[in-house]
Amino acid sequence: MSKPRMFLLVPIDANTVIAGAREVKNRFSLEIGKRGLAGEAKVIETGSFGPADAGVVVAVQPDGVVYGRLAPDDVPRIVEEHLVKGRPYVERILPGEKPPPPPESEDARHTQLHGRVVLDNCGRIDPDSIEEYIANDGYFALGQALTAMTPAQVIEEVKASGLRGRGGAGFPTGLKWSFCAPVKAREKYVICNADEGEPGTFKDRLIMEGDPHKVLEGMAICAYAIGATRGYVYIRGEYAISIERMQRAIDAARAKGLLGRNIFGRGFNFDIEIRKGAGAYVCGEETALIESMEGKRGLPRLKPPFPAQSGFRGMPTNVNNVETLANVPAIIRRGAAWFKSLGTAGTPGTKVYTILGHINRPGLIEVPAGVTLREIIEEYGGGMQSGSFHMAQLGGTAGDILGREMLDVPLDYDALQKVGHSLGSGAILIMNESVNVRDFLHACLKFFHHESCGRCGPCRNGLHVLRDITGRLKDGKAYKDDPGLMQEVALALKSSAFCPLGQSPAAPIMSAWRYFKDDILSGVDSNAARPRMARSLRADLSAAI
Amino acid sequence: MKNLDELRKIRDEVRKGLELRSGTHRAKIVVGMGTCGIAAGARDTMKALMDALEKAGVSDVAVTATGCAGFCEREPLVDVEITGQAPVRYGKVDVAAASRIVKEHVLGGKKVESLVFG
Predict the structure, then answer these.
(1) What is the 3-state secondary structure (H, E, C) of A181-211?
(2) 8 A C-beta contact, residue A372 and residue A385
(3) Are A447 and A199 spatial neighbours (Cβ–Cβ below 8 Å)?
(4) Helix ranges restricted to H, A11-115
(5) Is A3 within 8 Å of B54 when comparing Cβ atoms?
(6) A260 touches chain B (CB under 8 A)
(7) Which of A30, A143, A282, B97 lies at a CB distance of 3.0 to 4.6 Å from B4, suitable for a disulfide?
(8) What are phi and psi of A492, to 5 degrees?
């Protein structure tokens, strides 16, 4: 029997499944069988390679055609026209999209897919096939680390690469590892933080759904470097497909002896388990995550001691984000110097973003660190869908709101810090003039108020106050002193809240004030008088602050 | 996993099957599969082409179909497009001709003059 000559790559992720990807995929198999093409055309499940908000997507290779917004009833036409007669069914072609070629190939050199580090396999390989991951140099970094490097050398390499935590804070990864490595303990742990809770951010989900082995390999390398023997992936419970695929990946790696005992014959033992989160925003904070893993309520811990000294079960623990760990295999395989050649001096490498909002091509992208917001909108997002750029929120609800002035600032940790902003978790929400900044702020504050864990007073009470103020601003019924009070409370939270949940509402509030002061002030009703009760509340608050 | 060689073996074996899927190919064979082509036996021609490639262990040649080119009488038509060279069209390609084309042109690099459409 000959090899298939056509491949239909069907990205199956949480978004496409809702749009009916499984039904479309099954229909393809059925129609291909009916046509007697079963040996010639093969349908393969992959992860996402980019497009979001495009319904069910199918890429046909080697023709390089991408279809979008497919319904099962489109399938007979495509099989008839494209697979049998060789002419693409133009009506369903997704404009501007190409299936991913190998990132370092000649074909990729002139596309945005060139230089992908984290997503190089996403949308190309079957995430459930460990063989396909290995065929793309998978687990070679682990092999190289175990057979040719000492743990200290691995840490040095990661340090030299300049990799910074991709969960949002941007802390140098190699440095984090070096805190945990020298601590002596009976057992140490590596935790992969896959509790991606920042609204609008779903890059970690798509990484796990598209290339789960890369995350496992990164964890194993980290474990070797710091001397850990057990790993946990803390995935939020809503990520059903991520959990299934990661579990199958763990099983496959165990079966091949890439997890377990005496890996690569070097006496290194390491195994990984999945822990499901119950969907609390605060559990993305690493100490709250650890509490949750121990079966307790997800509340952040007092630091120090940091997890590197006393983390999960009181043992030294290293927690890294999914994307951070997914960068590690390439750094070990190709070297720190190569990694530094990508991105900027302060933020080497690439950054994975989910881009959303009023743009033509929302979706998942991986770009060199340091590209600007304007480049992302024009080149990767296909331009504004309607209207013109009004504002963007960088990094999910806890991120800064940027105005037009910031369109040309390079998106890296240092350049943004210089202008008083931060990069955040990897969501970029782009908005045109139809969005009112007061409505938007209130939506953000409703979220924070809902997610506050209640442990500390500033966050528990302050978010209540902020939600009410932004609500009044939204309705155009705010008191004269509300805008000032809003900033006062936000800044008080920033300096006194126990963890980043309470500290971060200051980001959207203060940045919105910076760019959209007049819009916010237009929510004030000069005739509105603050009721007596609320006035005394304010006095209490001021006293408390 | 005992050592890197074991990993290398899996990689090299699986890699062969993945080349076409990523859209990279050094040559493309296009078979006329209109009603006329199929009536003239293009299905068998297609199968023969794929079998010949499989037998030779080649994995970076794409085989695709196209519609009627307007020369129904000379079907099955087969175009061979080797990247960087002008495409060559063959006419009346039966099973035997198909395996010759693969052997001599696609793999050997020399076109089969006696079969060229002209």
Answers:
(1) CCCCCCCCEEEEEECCCCCCCCHHHHHHHHC
(2) no
(3) yes
(4) 14-18, 21-34, 75-78
(5) yes
(6) no
(7) A143
(8) -60, -40
A256–B24: do the CB atoms touch at under 8 Å? Answer: no
- Residue A101 touches chain B, beta carbons under 8 Å: yes
pLDDT digits (tens, 9 = 90+) for A98-139: 777 666 555 555 555 567 899 999 988 999 999 999 999 999
Closest Cβ opposite residue A62 in set B10, B11, B62: B62
Domain at A420, CATH number: 3.10.20.600
Please check whether residue A110 lies inside any domain of the structure: no
Range of the domain at B108: 4-115
- Side-chain-side CA neighbours of A433 within 13 Å: the count stands at 3
3-state DSSP assignment of residue A426? coil
Q: Note whether A144 contacts B: Cβ–Cβ < 8 A.
A: yes
- Closest-CA distance of chain B to residue A102, Å: 6
Q: What is the pLDDT of residues A243-292, one digit of tens each?
A: 999 999 999 999 999 999 999 999 999 999 999 999 899 999 999 999 99
Domain membership of residue A99 (yes or no) is: no
Residue B80 distance to chain A (closest CA, Å)? 15
Residue A79's closest chain B neighbor by CA?
B65
Q: Which residues of chain B make contact with A83, given a CB cutoff of 8 A? A: 65
> Which helix (H) or strand (E) segment is A488 a member of?
helix A482-496
CATH code, domain with A17? 3.40.30.10
- Same domain, residue pair A177 and A304: yes
